[in-house]
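Today's session is about reading a structure prediction critically. Students often jump straight to the picture, but the first step is always the sequence itself: look for stretches that repeat, for charged clusters, for runs of hydrophobic residues. Only then move on to the predicted structure, which in these notes is written as discrete structure tokens rather than atom positions. Here is the chain we will use throughout the hour.
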Amino acid sequence: MKFSSLNECTLAISDEDIITAMKQIPGYLDITPSDFMEIYLVAFNQAMSRLKNAIKTDQVMTRNVITVGEDASLADVIKKMADNEISGLPVLKNDQTVSGIISTTL
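Below is the predicted structure for this chain, in token form.
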């Protein structure tokens, strides 16, 4: 995600915010608010790039997957989803390969 200007960023930082923050930093800072904004945007884009690749699928996926067979009745599917507090289930063929997914949303 790249922002070409601060106005495109959802968290807008004003020059006044920057000046106030700079005054709170001890010592002398030899940069202008626009210098800071340029550094901030580059750092923000770098952080977003790093974070979007930081978590991999295997770190958040469910390992004990609850499934249903293709021949399951809709009543059985609804009960299984309600009992397990889940909103979707993989549907398996007889050979245990995935046929599709059934969920409460489209």
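Discussion point for the tutorial: Residues 17 and 33 are 9 Å apart (CA to CA).
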